[in-house]
């Protein structure tokens, strides 16, 4: 396994209440080189926290994360994250935004610009290099977000519900687009999502997490051939997978006390509080 | 709908019309003012008149207006420069080191809330009636708005952006340079706008209270001796200065705001 998450436990203190919250307990899974792994689980189970821990933004309380035999504790150039909100610097142009990650990593200016231009083209934004984020649609901003991460040419791409805010048409289009962009890179991808069809369409494997504190409930192999297409969503195989994963997630939702807990989601995932 | 479409097609002609109407309004205003005085409806000793003001200005130009201007200008420039330096540096430090900021917050809030005018007699007691006391008054007036806005600006950094920067391994210095500073620019400029206004008030009021020269001094002496023409010259100089500085800051703001979508 290229990425190895071993007995990971993550807890954090809620800033408002001072209470310590166990988000992930003894979670283990691995990702093979060049594979695309999607992560689903009940709302508020700690999917985003898992991604942030792998990104090095939240220190684990116990356990280890290994990438290529290196133990990960801090953010590094081997990983890059795509956020749910585009998180673009509004005063920078598309080109300057895509270059931002490389700049922070201390890349040579000319190299950074060249790579940024390449990746702007890759995500289909050629011609918009000098536009500001406010001049773009939400879908285009998400492409910039993606290009910024890709431009650092990470071994591991971490995507935290990147399409959650998009309308369903744009979302479907971006899913297929992401698949073809990723096929042209050498990266592994870890993709967190709420949408089970999205998880199946994109993933080589779907990791189903339990309710909080999260552990791996099951890992589902998706044997559908690549490139995947929209039509596959109607295949019997796809539907069986979807049903199976719904079952697993449903069990967890019930175990967490049904949907009643969803009201606490803002409190429960605590993403905003997790930084400190 | 048709009317809407029509007005929507001509922002350029709209802007032209607005410019002519503005000019017209000024001309009408000056005309009425002049006539009211000329016709003797209100005695010029109270309201002067545009022509008398011009005459007074010309006369004053040969009689020490420049010295008053230089004195007030110097007081303002020294005080503002000091306020900008101290306000920006302290604002950035206190905004960036949040816990330090929290410690001194009540202190700053208290000083900010105190009407600085109330301190002027004390300041004159300390610094005398020369330039130094005015510099101190301008400084005290301008420094707090600048400091408080800068502090707020540095603190207002978008958390999502910070998380993003950190995920790329950004150091504290990089977060500061690439996020905190640029996002606080509009706050800083707003603080400067406020500070300039406070500084101008400071110069004038301090000169009213105790001074040997300066525009404020000139205004108060002229008004006390019923020379309303001279008084108006001083008032117009102050108004012009305020407008000019404000316009310069607007320009500066526009330079940093190129990325913002135009409001139309």
Report on the architecture of this protein.
The complex is a heterodimer of chains A (276) and B (264). Chain A is α/β, with parallel strands linked by helices and 276 residues long. Chain A is 36% helix and 22% strand. In chain A, helix 2 packs across helix 3 (109-122), helix 2 runs parallel beside helix 4 (138-151) and helix 3 packs across helix 4. Chain B has 264 residues and is an all-alpha fold. Chain B has two domains: 2-42; 54-256, MetI-like fold (Orthogonal Bundle). In chain B, 83% of the residues lie in helices and 0% in strands. Mean pLDDT of chain B is 89; it is low at 1-9.
Largest interface: A-B, 30 and 23 residues
* Strands ordered across the widest β-sheet of chain A: 6-7-8-3-9-10
The CATH class designation of the largest domain in chain B is Mainly Alpha
Strand element count of chain B = 0
CATH-derived topology of the largest domain in chain B:
MetI-like fold
CA radius of gyration of chain A: 18 Å
Radius of gyration of chain B: 24 Å
| Shape by Cα distribution of chain A | globular
Q: What is the count of structural domains of chain B?
A: 2
CATH superfamily of the largest domain in chain B: MetI-like
The main sheet of chain B comes to: none
Distance from N terminus to C terminus of chain A (CA atoms, Å) equals 31 Å
Task: Count every helix of chain A, treating DSSP H or I runs of 4 or more residues as helices.
Answer: 9
Structural class of chain B: mainly alpha
Count of helices of chain B?
Answer: 12
Helix proportion range of chain B? over 70%
Oligomer: heterodimer
- The CATH architecture category of the largest domain in chain B equals Orthogonal Bundle
